[in-house]
Amino acid sequence: MSNFNITTLGQFIIERQNEYRDAKGAFSRLLRDIGIAAKVISREVNKAGLAEILGEAGHDNVQGEAVKKLDVIANELFIDCLTRGGECCAIASEENEDIIQIDSPVSKNAKYIVTLDPLDGSSNIDVNVSIGTIFSIYKRITQTGTPATTEDFFQCGNKAVAAGYVIYGSSTMLVYTTGNGVNGFTLDPSIGEFCLSHLNMKFPKDGTVYSLNEGNKAAFPDFVNKYIDWCQQTDKDTKRPYSARYIGSMVADVHRNLNKGGIFIYPPTAKAPKGKLRLLYECNPMSFIIEQAGGIATTGTERILDIVPSALHQRVPIILGSENMVKKVLEFMK
Ligand code: AHM
Ligand code: MG
C-alpha cells in the first residue's frame, strides 16, 4: 500500500477552486504562479550567502558582476513569474514607485492585479534571520483590456479575493486565504512542492507574547505605553508578565503569533508619524489572513480592511493579533 498521503499546494488549489464563486481556472493559475515564484525566491534566499547576493545593491561581487540586493532579485523573479503566467495585468510592489503594467498579449486581458512586498524584513536579509514575501490579489475594477490604473489598486482590503505570505524560516512556508479560512503549506525541498501542513489555521483568542519595537517607546502614543506597562506587570491569572518577542520581520512576528497567540503593534512614532508599515502590500494582506483566522487587525480607530487607500505606498499604524489582546489595547485607548 502507498503511504503517499500528502496534498500539494497545486492539488489543494484545484480542490478548493469552487469556493471562489467566479473561479474559471484563471484565479487558480494565478495562485499557482505565486507558489512557483515563492519556490524560486526560497531557493535564492537559501543560497544567498554562497552566491554573494546579500547586502546593498550598487557594488560588484568577486566575479566583477553587479550585485543585486536580494529584495531586488525577489521583485524581478515575482514580476517574471506573473508575466509568464498571464493571469495578472498589473502589480503594485514595494520596490517600484509606480504600478507595473504587464502588457504582453495574454496578460493585458487578465482580470487580476497583485500587490506585493517581495521581501519583507529588509534589516534581516543580511543576517540570516527569517524574512518573508507578502501578497494580495484583487479583481481589477477598470475595463479589462485597457491598462490598469491606480484606481484598481485603491480598493479596500476587504475587496481582496486572496492574500498570503511566504516565510523563509527554518523551513519555507506559504500561508494563504481566499476568504474561506487560512491554510499553510510547508515546502518539501526533496520534491520541490509546498505540502499542506497547517489546515484551517486559527488565531488563538489569547496569548502571552507582545511584539513591537520597544526602542521607540519614547515616541509611542500614551495608550501603547500603558499597554506595555500592563504586559510587564505580574498577575498569575492573566499569565503576566508577558514575553516580548520582536524579530523585525512582520511576516515572522505575525506568523509566530498566529501559531501561538500574541499581538503585533507598529504604532505611529516620531520617525514614522503615520506608522511605518504599508497598507497595500503589508497591512491589508496580513489583516485579511489574520481576520480569516479569527484575529483582529485595526489602526486603533478603524478596521484595517475598511481603509480606502489614497496612495500606493500609504502607511498606517497597525495593531494586529489575538482577539482578547487587541481588545485590551483598545481599552487603554479610551
Ligand atoms: P521593510 O519592508 O523595509 O522590510 O520594512 C518593514 C519591516 C517589517 O517587516 C517589520 O515589522 C518592520 O519593518 C520593522 O521595523 P523597525 O526596524 O522599525 O522595528
Ligand atoms: Mg516590507
For the biggest β-sheet, the strand order reads 2-1-3-4-5-6-7-8
Give the H and E element order: HHHHEEEHEHEEEEEHEHEHEEH
- The CATH H-level superfamily of the largest domain is Fructose-1,6-Bisphosphatase, subunit A, domain 1
Residue share in β-strands? 15-25%
- CATH class membership of the largest domain: Alpha Beta
Structural class: alpha+beta
Outline the biggest β-sheet.
8 strands, mixed
Folded structure, characterized:
Helices cover 31% and strands 20% of the residues. The chain is an alpha+beta fold. It has 2 domains: 190 residues, Fructose-1,6-Bisphosphatase, Chain A, domain 1, CATH 3.30.540; 125 residues, D-Maltodextrin-Binding Protein, domain 2 (3-Layer(aba) Sandwich), CATH 3.40.190.80. The strands form 2 sheets. Strands 2-1-3-4-5-6-7-8 form an 8-stranded mixed β-sheet, with helices on both faces. The chain has a 5-stranded mixed β-sheet with strand order 10-9-11-13-12, with helices on both faces. Strand 9, helix 7 and strand 10 form a beta-alpha-beta unit. The longest helix is centred in the N-terminal third of the chain and has 21 residues. The model has no long low-confidence stretch (mean pLDDT 92).
Short account of what is shown:
The protein is an alpha+beta fold.
